[in-house]
């Protein structure tokens, strides 16, 4: 009914949920998955998980139905009962506090939606208010901040922070606000006032992968590509030793690029006719297509041509989360348009427009918004739909979740988009057209700007480069070795601390000297850059909004990745911190302590600025090498044991 199909499988006794299928409505996935993993009997009769009791909704409709023994966080084996107890006993009121107090959500992060549900349900059960503030720096939702930025025409994070915020910001609010600014004004994100506010993917215009390496994903509109462009991709990948894979979105991904090689790689690709694919951004990714009437005997519309038109219109448009689309040339739906944020399925009279579909961990079948549209009308409705979503969605919310939370649901959305119930459609169309008109390839701007190319240096005090993770060969290609488990990673850190305890004590008491490492201009305001000292990499941060400088080891102890200088800096409870760009572990820039609840720490170093010269107070290079040499971390990043020396052979 209404495009929804649900099937659950139970044991013969009807006391255990074994698995199931959810099509069109997967909002109960998290609860059902936890019940299926649990060892205790179901809290209700089997049919009540779907149909509910006569007096209420389906039992699966919330975390309240989960038993206390239900596993919420698989990485750290945290149960619902342990979460609820910690929230009540420790007075936890935010997800960050829950992560620090219980370790739930500090592994892969996939359980965070369920952790949030447990937190909110527990707070509500005790009569406490559930906060929807963006973070500790802004006592407003993203929707409220969007309205303020739009009404006051504010164009920088600092302006908004001064108007309605406090502190210096963090890894949550900085990307959220820059996303709002991009959705409204679309200024280049590589401008100095925007760049260090971005997550590392946007800051370096590439998706960070394991070991601090990056992927390169050129745009291939509609999945259509010429032989010459394919050859250009292959030649570039071969020249830089990049792992090559065809993605599920009909384009080609080149993995393993060093940060310092990115401008040169993109210069070659731009010369070959490519432009940025925005795989790194919370933006339109791709518009997938089947071949439609171009080749297929069943096609009824030119799905390739329309997909290219749609992709070229919305490329670069930033939103609360990534956006995916597709165009199918007939009802056989080979492009899978009904699993996308918006999709078009060809009919004899035009296109049916579907919205708010989703694949991934919680699939959702898209809803039919309008039927038999000509291309221009479809574009008009998509303009309205996307801008309304961008104006009203929470941070990091896909369209599927947004529609589920939208008051009035699909009926309301149709009234706004099709019937102009709110009288804002002309404004929505004008706002989208402004974004379309201001598009520019972000990589072309970098390639043609020597100053911006300098920001991609591995080290600011030397032209030397060095690898930061061990590479292995597999099926004729190069890739990083496998990461160890979370338990091994923490054990490695503990063993490393014990192994270097004496050296660390000596280093802290040994004579130190002030070592010049660069000029003020080498370190971006409110961001970091890396210097090389002997065999050690050190991250140096220019905390311009505080008027202070900090330095710490470049290696994040969690996954032994040399990436901390590329993280977002900010504060929590007035403590200056940096968030690792890989998994958002946060570390105090004053003490080096992990603020996310784990036992990790990082070494910190005093910084002095005299005139234009930036210096660090450091022990002798050989002493620091024994503590933090890159080759030790490089080995541990892929070691499956806790040995500190590379294994011969």
From TrEMBL:
Pfam families: Fer2_BFD, NIR_SIR, NIR_SIR_ferr, Rieske_2. Belongs to the nitrite and sulfite reductase 4Fe-4S domain family. It comes from Tectimicrobiota bacterium. Keywords: 2Fe-2S, 4Fe-4S, FAD, Flavoprotein, Heme, Iron, Iron-sulfur, Metal-binding, Nitrate assimilation, Oxidoreductase. Transmembrane segments: none annotated. InterPro entries: BFD-like_2Fe2S-bd_dom, BFD-like_2Fe2S-bd_dom_sf, NasD-like, NiRdtase/SiRdtase_haem-b_fer, Nit/Sulf_reduc_fer-like_dom_sf, Nitri_red_NirB, NO2/SO3_Rdtase_4Fe4S_dom, NO2/SO3_Rdtase_4Fe4S_sf. One of its GO terms (biological process) is energy derivation by oxidation of organic compounds. Its cofactor is FAD; [4Fe-4S] cluster; siroheme; [2Fe-2S] cluster. Pathway: Nitrogen metabolism; nitrate reduction (assimilation). The lineage of its organism: Bacteria, Pseudomonadati, Nitrospinota/Tectimicrobiota group, Candidatus Tectimicrobiota. Residues 515-616 form the Rieske domain. This is Nitrite reductase small subunit NirD. One of its GO terms (molecular function) is 4 iron, 4 sulfur cluster binding.
């Amino acid at each position: 009914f209404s495009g929804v199909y649900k099937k659950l499988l139970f044991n013969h006794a009807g006391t255990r949920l074994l698995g199931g299928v959810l099509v069109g409505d997967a909002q109960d996935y998290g609860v059902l998955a936890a019940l299926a993993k649990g060892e205790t009997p179901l809290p209700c009769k089997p049919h009540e998980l779907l149909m509910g009791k006569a007096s209420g909704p389906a039992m699966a409709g919330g975390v309240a139905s989960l038993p206390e023994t239900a596993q919420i966080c698989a990485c750290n084996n945290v149960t619902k009962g342990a979460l609820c107890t910690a929230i009540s006993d420790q007075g936890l009121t935010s997800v960050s506090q829950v992560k620090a107090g219980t370790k739930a959500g500090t592994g892969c992060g996939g359980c965070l939606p369920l952790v949030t549900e447990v937190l909110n349900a527990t707070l509500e059960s005790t009569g406490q208010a559930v906060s929807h503030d963006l973070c500790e720096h802004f006592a407003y939702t993203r929707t409220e901040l969007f309205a303020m930025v739009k009404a006051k025409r504010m164009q920088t994070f600092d302006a908004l922070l001064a108007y309605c915020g406090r502190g210096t910001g963090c890894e949550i609010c900085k990307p959220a606000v820059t996303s709002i600014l991009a959705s409204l004004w679309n200024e280049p994100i590589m401008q100095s006032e925007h760049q260090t506010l971005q997550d590392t993917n946007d800051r370096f215009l590439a998706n960070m992968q394991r070991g601090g390496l990056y992927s390169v994903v050129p745009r291939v509109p509609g999945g259509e590509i010429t032989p010459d462009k394919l050859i250009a991709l292959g030649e570039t990948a071969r020249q830089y030793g990049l792992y090559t894979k065809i993605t599920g979105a009909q384009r080609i991904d080149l993995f393993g690029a060093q940060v310092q090689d990115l401008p040169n790689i993109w210069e070659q690709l731009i010369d070959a006719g490519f432009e940025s694919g925005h795989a790194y951004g919370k933006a339109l990714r791709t518009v997938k297509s089947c071949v439609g009437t171009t080749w297929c005997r069943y096609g009824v519309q030119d799905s390739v041509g329309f997909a290219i038109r749609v992709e070229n219109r919305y490329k670069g448009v930033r939103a609360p989360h990534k956006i995916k689309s597709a165009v199918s040339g007939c009802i056989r739906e080979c492009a899978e348009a009904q699993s996308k944020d918006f999709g078009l399925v060809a009919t004899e009279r035009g296109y049916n427009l579907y919205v708010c579909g989703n694949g991934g961990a919680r699939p959702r079948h898209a809803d039919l918004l309008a039927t038999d549209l000509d291309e221009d009308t479809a574009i008009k409705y998509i303009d309205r739909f996307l801008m309304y979503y961008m104006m009203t969605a929470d941070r990091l919310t896909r369209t599927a979740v947004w529609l589920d939370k939208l008051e009035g649901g699909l009926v309301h959305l149709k009234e706004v988009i099709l019937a102009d119930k709110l009288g804002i459609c002309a404004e929505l169309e004008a706002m989208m057209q402004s974004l379309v008109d201001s598009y520019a390839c972000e990589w072309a701007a970098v390639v043609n700007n020597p100053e911006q190319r300098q920001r991609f240096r591995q080290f600011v005090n030397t032209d030397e480069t060095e690898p930061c993770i061990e590479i292995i060969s597999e099926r004729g290609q190069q890739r990083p070795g496998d990461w160890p488990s979370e338990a091994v990673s923490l054990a490695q850190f503990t063993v490393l601390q014990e192994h270097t305890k004496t050296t660390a004590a000596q280093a802290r008491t040994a004579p130190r000297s002030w070592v010049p490492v660069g000029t003020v201009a080498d370190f971006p305001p409110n961001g970091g850059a890396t210097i090389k000292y002997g065999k050690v990499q050190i991250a140096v941060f220019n905390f311009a909004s505080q008027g202070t400088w900090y330095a710490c080891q470049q290696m994040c102890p969690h996954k032994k990745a040399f990436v901390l200088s590329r993280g977002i800096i900010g504060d929590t409870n007035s403590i200056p911190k940096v968030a690792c760009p890989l998994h958002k572990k946060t570390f105090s820039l004053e003490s080096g302590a992990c603020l996310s609840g784990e036992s990790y720490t990082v070494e910190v170093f005093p910084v002095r600025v005299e005139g234009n010269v930036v210096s660090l107070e450091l022990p002798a290079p050989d002493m620091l090498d024994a503590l933090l040499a890159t080759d030790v971390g490089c080995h541990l990043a892929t070691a499956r044991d806790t040995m500190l020396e590379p294994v011969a052979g």
